[in-house]
Amino acid sequence: MINEDPGEEFLISELAALAKAIFSNLELIVLLEVKTERQRTDEHLKALWSNRETRENIKSTHVTGRFLHFRRLHPTLTDEALENRIAWVLRSAGHEPSERDRRVFDDPAHCLLKLLTRLAEVFLCEARDGSIRVRSRLQTQWHDLVLVVPPLLVTAAWMAARRSIPDETTISRAARIEFQRRVQLWLCDSTLPVDDDPLLDQLCATEGLDETHMHLNGTTEAEKVWMDVLARPREVLNALRHRATREGGLHTRIGDGIDRLLRQEDPNLTPTRLHQRIEQAITTKAFLLEALDSHYALTNPSGAFLLLDPQARYGQVVRARPLETDLTVTTTEALHLVDIISYLASGNGTEVHGLAFFYYALIRAQFCRLLVQQADQIGFDQFQYITLNELREATEKDYAERFRQIERGFQKPVNFLEGRFAPKENPERNASLLMQILRGYIQFLDERADGIPRGNLNKLFSDPKMARISLAEALRISRELEEGSHRLPRSERRLRLGLVAHFIKRTDTDERNRFLRDEFSPVCRDSKARRMADRAAQALVVLLQSVHGLSSMLRGVDAASNERHAGPEVFAPVFRRMRRAQIQRFTYHVGEDFVHLASGLRAINEAVLFLDLTSGCRLGHATAAGLSPEKWWRSVGDAVIQPSEDRLDDLVFVWGTLKRKHVFQDRIALLDAEIRRLAMYIWEDPYLTPDILLRAWQLRYIDPIIRSYGNYDVNSDRNAEIKIYKESQARDPKAHAQFLLRHGAGLTVEARIRCRQPILVKREGDILDQELLEFLQTATLELIQKRNIAIETLPSSNVRISIHQSYDDHHAAGWLGYGKALCPTSVVIGTDDPGIFATSLRAEYAHMLHALEANGAGANAAYTLQTLAATSRRFRF
Question: For this chain's UniProt record, which GO biological process terms are given (predicted)?
């Protein structure tokens, strides 16, 4: 362990950077991978290493690639400065500098074991409850590390160092079982250990945490998907290989986003090449496991066993391992890694085994990076490419494993989970999806803390998977297990589940282009997204009305995904429909990704006003209301480009806010003139005033598709929308006419084109200056607080998608009264997509605790954290 001194933090950061550089060595992967289909990976590695010239080339590629990737992490340093840092890290291990350490790190056949052991001893420790923990003071550096380096490799090295006998085959079965149980206790059903802060231990144990913002798809940890791809590569990779092409870009063609995601990771990576590498990793791991025990070592190299395909060979080797049958998948994988690391550490393995382990780890790391948003992948689009690659799809059909991951065995940090799911467009598909979720939930509830089934369901049903029961019966069983009944004892699990339906924000590029050309123009803007959301809402309402007990499980409604693809106005009719179906709680993702900060603030206000969010409702993210305008301008290079109509909307929104608040009278006059100029350019109507434009903006909660209907409809929901439409038309005909004009009623092709004409807005000279933006933030927060709405803040998601450089400058500290204090705001914490952000709810609380301390909370940080937990309980649906 590196001793604590003034340079400790710097040294640890450089150690983590060096580890990331080593694990990102794409050149070494290319050099080691098999080029022909007929050659086995292990034989290929043996051939490479046995040849002196290729062996030296491998070592050179390792060292050169390490340096180049280290340079990318430190782009401003000279070569000499980089050399000094690398040498310092390599030769510093808490003892006198060692030339031998440098030679070990320069050798790819030996460096990985040394590196993983070093990382393990620096970052990890054992808590009083017997679990592996991350040292609390290093939580931020650890989280940065595991975006690139698979964490189970590090924890396996930590566990291997604490195994008394390195060769498992020489110990008794009882001792082996005891160690296997110990590993399961260390891991707590997760590949990501949590911090060791005693405050959070107490908070989790006594009060528990409430998860208010988690998407069920996107929850599974990356390494759990890796374990699945080892067992069934074709099924897991099938979605990536056969996905439909999804072109990215709202304003210009930028190509398929998933293809770009692969090429960002590796310029030569394709779905086919990834599949080939996965199969080579499977063969390599089988080769390493075969070497561990003479009982199943290859005694006949020419036998039929060697001719098996990688998946079959791997399956036979794994089945021969001396492991207990009731261990979790995570524990089993960890034991494999512990065995391999122990074997290499004992000196029994050859250099080829060391090289094979390194190659296996490099492929494992590359695959996991495709499932986790990296530090340099900024913005929602980058996040969305990870969700769209669907590499999690096959794995995430097992919902029980997700609940186990959140429960974390005996740790049980979470009281309540609001799991979000995307409703389908017909009741049958919704019922099927909900049954899939409930089967996993019921299976989870009928398990002990160690994951072993209690067997209560077997007593009730001949089919323990409950394939033949109805959705209503599944709901009843889940309630019985939650509360206990005469036929089912109360579950030992702490976690309880509620569901939130989140409608998807979509855009259709072809529809947008047709609207601009007025060629077979849609009835209104975003008509396809509106109709799809409405069909999904209708299907959900039908199911709610027909399935007894579903309303108690379905706690609320949300709209999620890329907010630039559809604004709050698109979902206003859907939210009204769900209210009429007796859904009372709503939340909405907004103000997270925007072109201009004023646009983000406008979107937040639109969500509150158009969706009629009231007491007990929430907003997801709302980062525009917390970011420093100064810092935001710097992040966008002091200039933005936005469509003319968006700029006009921003100006009208600001003008209306200032008029309502009776402030900045001098700015109101300037805004008035700029609005009239821009409105005249777009609409060519000299009588169009800021007041009319403001009133037309306020009418956007109306469904514009209604203009294609008659005056009455037998469908009660549709008839209610017709009434809203007709009343607004009678009440304010000028504003209503402008509202319809925006949706294409009488709009010329020239005006449509002018609406999308780009405008360059520079910080210098922008009428929406820093003082005005800060006022708008305060006014927005006052509106949120006045309506008793909470903001769901998601630290890791915000750091990846927003402009933050670290957790310490997270904007929520200002909402909570620290740093640059903003208007007091009700804040709850969630994880968003914990698998994609390599986090957990407890980790998000740890990040927030550090942010509070960094912003001067001091002794009040503990109280503020407890307040956050209490607010989450109060605002949970």
Answer: adenosine catabolic process; inosine biosynthetic process; nucleotide metabolic process
What pLDDT is attached to residue 294? 55
pLDDT score, position 208: 95
Residue 590 forms beta bridges with which residues? 621
Parse the chain into domains and list their residue ranges: 8-388, 591-635+770-877, 639-762
Q: What is the 3-state secondary structure (H, E, C) of 631-669?
A: HHHHHCCCEEEEEHHHHHHHHHHHHHHHHHHCCCHHHHH
Q: How far does CA 599 lie from the centroid of its chain?
A: 24
169 Cα distance to chain centroid:
40
**Rounded Cα gap, residues 243 and 236, in angstroms:** 12
**What is the widest separation between alpha-carbon atoms in the chain?**
91
Distance CA 846, CA 140 (A): 9
**Which SS3 state, helix, strand or coil, does residue 33 take?**
coil
Residues 6+ apart with CB under 8 A from 692: 734, 735, 738
Does the structure show a pLDDT above 90 at 128? yes
CB under 8 Å to 205, separation ≥6 — which residues?
none
For the record, the structure tokens of 105 come out as 């790190």
Q: What pTM was estimated for this model as a whole?
A: 0.93
Mean pLDDT of 519-546: 93
Instruction: Report the 10 Å Cβ neighbour count for 389.
Output: 21
Helix, strand, coil percentages (3-state) for the chain, rounded to 5, are 60, 10, 35
Per-residue model confidence as pLDDT tens digits over 270-305: 999 999 999 999 999 999 998 887 544 444 344 444
Radius of gyration in angstroms for the set of CA atoms belonging to the chain, rounded to a whole number = 29
Q: What is the SS3 assignment for 3?
A: coil
The pLDDT tens digits for 406-427 are 999 999 999 999 999 999 999 9
State the pLDDT confidence band at 463, using cuts at 50, 70 and 90.
Answer: low
DSSP 335-369: HHHHHHHHHHHTT-S-HHHHHHHHHHHHHHHHHHH
Nearest-angstrom CA–CA distance, 61 and 43: 20
Helix (H/G/I), strand (E/B), else coil: 709: coil
The average confidence (pLDDT) of the chain is 91
Distance CA 813, CA 786 (A): 20
